[in-house]
Amino acid sequence: MEKGYGIELTPYILSKKVVLNYLGDGPISSYDDSNYFFVIDHVYPASSADDANIKRGDVIVEINGAPITDLNYARWWTSLQTGEDNLTLKMYTRNDDARTYEFFDCELPATNFERNPIAYGDLLTIDSALPFDLGDKKIGYLSFDWDFDEKMVEAISTLVEKGATDVILDLRSNGGGHVTSSVLLASMLLDESYVGPDKIYARLVHNPNNKIN
């Protein structure tokens, strides 16, 4: 267990122009062009962020009633990921039902939570209006952070129990990890047709420009 808000931020900071380009015109247009915004990349279950219904892709536009600027963004960036104090956030989020973006406010206390690298692991709800037929396929979706083999195995085992026939791997939150983790993941997703003396999964090649052994 550790203390904090239970969120991970994307490794980049957005400007007003970028947000408008990606999300379309809306309430965000009232902000100054010099304002910055943080994007949520991961929310840990049973954390204060989870309790506040913050989700991946939400945008933090204000902290403690004030906009994020070039003078304070570095301090807030650190505070949000270390959980120093209780915060009040104004968020920009998508309302899927109305297909619009809107603001909501939330209180974010620093509480104890357990890190779980699985951002999402479940069967997808497929829109029946798709222009193609999936037949009997059940599509599993898995998004996870690196270097947590036990949780990864549990997540894939759950998808198998739910009858997943195919899996979409979302690696946007995954910064990389051990080759052994990659092999473990592949062994759970690939069938025996990929196994054999002539089947190469990975090859490590020394960089010839690196003269240091």
Can you put this structure into words, describing what you see?
With 213 residues, the protein is α+β, with helices and mostly antiparallel strands. It contains 5 helices and 11 strands; from the N terminus they run ββαβαββαβββββαβα. The protein has helices at residues 16-23, 48-51, 73-82, 149-161, 179-189; strands at residues 2-4, 7-15, 36-43, 59-63, 66-67, 87-95, 100-108, 111-113, 118-123, 139-144, 166-170. Strands 2, 3, 4, 5, 6 and 7 form a 6-stranded antiparallel β-sheet that branches. α4 (149-161) runs parallel beside α5. The protein is globular. It starts with a strand and ends in a 24-residue tail after the last helix.
Break the fold down into its secondary structure elements and pairings.
Layout: E1 2-4, E2 7-15, H1 16-23, E3 36-43, H2 48-51, E4 59-63, E5 66-67, H3 73-82, E6 87-95, E7 100-108, E8 111-113, E9 118-123, E10 139-144, H4 149-161, E11 166-170, H5 179-189
Parallel strand pairs: 10-11
Antiparallel strand pairs: 1-8, 2-3, 3-4, 4-5, 4-6, 6-7, 9-10
Helix pairs in contact: 4-5
Question: Main beta sheet, described?
Answer: 6 strands, antiparallel
The counted number of beta strands is 11
Q: Strand portion, in percent?
A: 25-35%
Give the helix/strand class.
alpha+beta
- Percent in helix: 10-25%
Mean residue pLDDT: 83
Shape: globular
Task: Please tell me how large the radius of gyration is.
Answer: 21 Å
Order of helices and strands: EEHEHEEHEEEEEHEH
* Low-pLDDT regions: none
